[in-house]
Amino acid sequence: MSEKIRELISEEKVDARIREIGQQISRDYAGKTLHLICVLKGGVYFMCELSKRISVPVSLDFMSISSYGDDTKSSGVVKIVKDLDQPLEGKHVMIVEDIIDSGRTLGYLMEILKKRNPASLKLCTLLDKPDRRVVNSVETDYCCFEIPDEFVVGYGLDYAQKYRNLPYIGALDFEE
Ligand code: IMP
Ligand code: MG
């Protein structure tokens, strides 16, 4: 079987939409400092581009949790692989994610982070697959694109650790 990538959202569209969301966040957080949390590794491209488009003061931290193996289906198993370096107490925190699929990863993460007493906790995602949601408590505050139930790669998203560096979002097709 060979893999083929079909462009779903062009580089230009992704970049334009990130600028838009960045402006919206800057307006919503006017007068505040925003603490962005990147969920590694998928969120890293989005985090970098988004943070450049936010005009309020920003600080960054990184976290790694496992939810997917090298497969295309959620395992439902979530564990912290790398925790944050800084405390969240009293901060305006925003989780920056690549994609919300079943919502299992984020449902779990939000519960853990809420217990650390941030002043506020919001969720910003590059992509959302609402049709796949299992954990209904997970709601996105900022979302760049809602997409259909397809496995996507690029802009940080991988298939077996490949394709993260594509500058656009592509759907992965398998061919005999
Ligand atoms: P969830 O726990 O099912 O919401 O899965 C979230 C995580 O699964 C994301 O942060 C991604 O790392 C991964 N994931 C979900 N859908 C895709 C996809 O279409 N392509 C690549 N990774 C995905
Ligand atoms: Mg992720």
Walkthrough of the structure:
By secondary structure, the protein is of the alpha/beta class. The chain has a single domain, classed as Rossmann fold (3-Layer(aba) Sandwich). The chain is built from 3 helices and 9 strands. Strands 4-3-2-5-6-7 form a 6-stranded mixed sheet, with helices on both faces. It has a 3-stranded antiparallel sheet with strand order 1-9-8. Helix 1 crosses helix 2. The protein is globular and about 55 Å long. The model has no long low-confidence stretch (mean pLDDT 92). The structure holds inosinic acid (IMP) and magnesium ion. Magnesium ion (MG) binds at residues 39, 42-43, 97-98.
CATH fold type: Rossmann fold
Mean pLDDT: 92
Tally of individual domains: 1
How do the strands line up in the largest sheet?
A: 4-3-2-5-6-7
**Low-confidence segments:** none
Sheet of most strands: 6 strands, mixed
Counting helices, strands and paired strands, the structural category is alpha/beta
Tell me the β content.
Answer: 25-35%
Shape descriptor: globular
Number of helices: 3
First-to-last CA distance: 5 Å
Percent in helix: 10-25%
Number of E-type strands: 9
CATH level-two architecture = 3-Layer(aba) Sandwich
Write down the CATH class.
Answer: Alpha Beta
Identify every distinct bound molecule in the structure, by name, code or SMILES: inosinic acid, magnesium ion
The H-and-E topology, N to C, reads as: EHEHEEEHEEEE
What's the alpha carbon Rg, rounded to whole Å?
A: 16 Å
